[in-house]
Amino acid sequence: MFQQILFATSATPACDPAARVAFNLARRYGGRLALLHVLGVPTRGFSQEVVDIRTGQKVQADEDYLACVREEITQYYAKQMESVPGAAIDIRLGYPHREILRKARDERPDLIVMGGTTEDPSGSAYKKVMVGSTFHRVAKAAFCPVLAVGRSAASFWGGGFSNIVFATDFSKAANAAFDFCLEVAGSLDGELHLFHALDIGTPQTGVLIDQDAIEKRLREARQRIRGLYVPRMGEFKKYSIEVWEGIPYIEIVKFAREKQADLIIMAHQSQALDAENAKLGSNMEQVIVRASCPVLSVSRPPKAQ
Length: 305
Prior knowledge:
Elements: E1 4-8, H1 16-29, E2 32-38, E3 49-51, E4 58-60, H2 63-76, H3 78-82, E5 88-92, H4 96-107, E6 111-115, H5 125-128, H6 133-141, E7 146-149, E8 163-167, H7 172-187, E9 191-199, H8 211-228, E10 239-246, H9 248-258, E11 263-267, H10 282-290, E12 295-298
Parallel strand pairs: 1-2, 1-6, 2-5, 6-7, 8-9, 8-11, 9-10, 11-12
Antiparallel strand pairs: 3-4, 7-12
Helix pairs in contact: 4-6, 9-10
């Protein structure tokens, strides 16, 4: 299932949870792991002077400096790399999201693994709860699913994807993502939980639904899941169906915690936006930074050129 894995890393503690998941996946499923570190963006044109994203300092990215960085990364992941023979390190210059996507086009991985959040030296509370802009852009444009590990707790799962939550909002993107979700559950012999969170609004938004209407919509959502997804499962029988009401991202996180999920799968929702300015839907964004398991973003396949 995951024979080719691309792990985009800054080789800093911010990426440690994602590293744990990436190496565990490669080791468990016998996949080939490629580590990509984007050193920084050249200050001008084709200059070798870059701002190192790890240190924030301007450096001359000549062969000696690149060799030094490669050795530092090799030492940083020394123990993990011993358990995954053949893991390769690639260092590039440029904008991180562009280089990650170029690497993905070159190697066609089955999965891209990234950290779900970015560090913010200023301590901004906003930055601490927002998914990194690099992840936004990669998830929108990638040719394969992108796995986000937003919290340290999300990296301490049971060692495999045996308990999977598919969170759907019945959008076209979610319906397309279901096929991949079913493939993952079937190939890994996992249990699949089909889940929909009915958004009933809050007093603050001024949008509230009376209880009779809520119960009617809950019944309709269950019927919709049965009609839309169950016929596509074929012989796959290890599934459950749940519909809860509330704030979607909160209910998704609570449901996944109750089911002790190893993985949450959701669809990327910003097909109408270009890759440079894409933002993840707010529900996925909040699930990534709150969930106690990895979150897989699935985009619709790109249109043929």
